[in-house]
Amino acid sequence: MKKISTLSALLLTACVTINIYFPAAAADKVADEVIKEIQGVSTQEKSEPEARANHGRLAFYYAVDRILAVIISPAHAAGEADLSIKTVQINKLRHTLKQRFSVLQENYASGLIGIKADGFLVVRNLSEIPLKNRNQLKKLVASENNDRQTLYQAIANANGHPEWYVQIKTTFARHWLSNANIGWWYQTASGAWQQR
Q1: One-letter-per-residue 3-state SS of 19-65
Q2: How far is CA 153 from CA 17, 69, 150, 160, in A?
Q3: pLDDT tens digits along 97-138
Q4: Angle, to 10 degrees, between the axis of helix 165-178 and the axis of helix 48-71?
Q5: Ramachandran bin of 72, using left for φ above 0, alpha for ψ from -120 to 50, beta for the remaining angles
Q6: CA-CA distance, 11 to 137, in Å (whole number)?
Q7: How many CA atoms does the CB half-sphere of 177 hold within 13 Å?
Q8: Which of 33, 196, 34 is nearest to 115 (CA)?
Q9: Rounded CA separation 144/126 (Å)
Q10: Is the per-residue pLDDT at 34 higher than 90?
Q11: pTM here?
């Protein structure tokens, strides 16, 4: 019984350390900023209920960060990154993603592509695409997914924590879904497809 308690305490401590160390609120802010820039959406263009919902989520993350900052020693808290996104590589990726968005937007609207639960794209209805256009759409989706993956790693690297890739990817996945336009298809956590 003592071994189980010790192991449980150790695992709990490890999980808490990871959650404390990764700046979740800063990641949410960066993800939202980058995605809105890519989609050409200003913060004023979101509907009032959507804006309130996003504000509520961000307020929750900021509150959690503040509470944890009180619990953690100031020396440890000072070491947290603010998730800088100002590098040549990140700027280039943002530009590329923004340029590609207009073509992707047409395919989102038609339902040919959808956003998977992990935030990456997938061709949903290959049979509805003329044979001559299939490879082109597959390449478009593959390029987008590759650039998203590279962006997440570049953000982690730019902040001196390459191990943050998974948390950054997870954060962006939530924001790709929450920033999807009405009519776009997305995959739920259970794997089912729904239209926003």
Answers
A1: HHHCCHHHHHHHHHHHHHHHHCCCHHHCCHHHHHHHHHHHHHHHHHH
A2: 21, 26, 5, 11
A3: 999 999 999 999 999 999 999 999 999 988 888 899 999 999
A4: 160
A5: beta
A6: 44
A7: 17
A8: 196
A9: 17
A10: yes
A11: 0.71
Q: Structural domain of residue 102, as residue ranges?
A: 2-195
Q: Which two tokens stand for residue 33?
A: 């900023």
- Tokens 């953000």 belong to residue: 155
Taking the C-alpha atoms of residue 77 and residue 148, their distance in angstroms, rounded to an integer, is: 29
Tokens 């800088």 belong to which residue?
84
Q: Count the Cβ atoms, other than its own, within 10 Å of residue 121.
A: 20
Buried b (16+ CB within 10 A) or exposed e, 46-85: beeeeeeebeebeeebeeebeebeeebeeeeeeebbebeb
Please compute, for residue 116, the number of CA atoms within 13 A of its CA located in the half-sphere on the CB side: 12
Q: What backbone torsions phi and psi does residue 121 show, to the nearest 5 degrees? A: -95, 160
In tens, the pLDDT along 149-161 reads: 999 999 999 999 9
The domain tally of the chain equals: 1
Over the range 147-168, which residues count as b (16 or more CB within 10 Å of their CB) and which as e?
Answer: bbeebbbbbbebbebeebbebb
Relative to beta strand 185-187, strand 193-195 is antiparallel
